[in-house]
Amino acid sequence: RAKDAGGNEHCDYEPSLHANAEEKRQLEFSLRKALERGEMLLHYQPVVDAKTEKVVSFEALVRWNSSEHGFVSPGKFIPLAEDTRLIVPIGTWVMQEACKEAAGNWPSHVKVNINVSPEQLLEPDFAATVVQALSHSGLDPKRLEIEVTESIFLRDASVARKALEQCMALGCSVALDDFGTGYSSLGYLRKLKFSTIKVDRSFVQGAAQQSRESLAIIRAVVAMAESLGMTTTAEGVENEEEAEMIRSLRCNKIQGYHFGRPMPATDVRMLFVRSNAEAVRKRA
Ligand code: C2E
Ligand code: MG
Ligand code: MG
Ligand code: MG
Q1: 143-163 pLDDT tens trace
Q2: End-to-end C-alpha distance for the chain, whole angstroms
Q3: Locate the EAL domain: which residues (predicted)?
């Protein structure tokens, strides 16, 4: 029986496997040209202080508007870019572009968060690309926070750590993204001084659905971060109930659709112009 089922599966699977491989090949072909064609752009999502609800940072999130495939989600092209190492030039572009945007158009108290893949971090000249992005843009290193996931420690942990320490020596901070979803060895929390732990959206959702486990985990992460001198950001907060729950758990910062979706750079600028006008009006 098992053999029969296996045989059937085999027949059903083959064509779709080929289709996937073919689709992937075409996507890769287009991805190779995306940067030079100017198809990459950045959206920015606000991160707010949990108490004051003031924007403390924007996370840069890359978008690909392909002439051949239309909008392709990062969930699809980032893994492909990582597999093909195209993430290295794409990541360098993201770093330069986001630093330039933050330095040129944002108030100086607002930081920028930039996601970095393991493949990028393990490049020997990673820190040099950060130095270059900072010096070209004139961005104060204190305003740059690099986001990495636990996956960086799965490979060359000491190389990854050194690269991040070089960035910290420049004055940048480092956040641990999607915390609790990867291979979580707590050992490296002892070795690397993250400024922020970002609690993954799955825990926020779980807690909102009254999952006692999710609540307990968020509580424990917040307590651990506090005693390590780190802050916490809750990811994926979608409504007021979730925001209220996160506040009661004493997360320091909140990110999610409830406070703002990822938006084009021009929308961010408009927001600052408007809030400036408001501040002036209040003072008058
Ligand atoms: P991430 O760094 O964890 O970014 C947060 C993701 O959650 C973003 O998805 C964001 O749009 C989404 N999100 C934010 N708030 C909410 C919410 O309230 N509800 C829901 N359902 N989702 C929310 P996005 O933009 O699709 O990016 C997905 C992932 O792709 C990112 O996850 C990050 O790992 C990766 N990525 C994005 N941009 C870059 C980049 O420039 N470089 C690298 N290496 N990776 C990137
Ligand atoms: Mg992130
Ligand atoms: Mg995240
Ligand atoms: Mg995530």
Answers
A1: 999 999 999 988 889 999 999
A2: 81
A3: 24-276
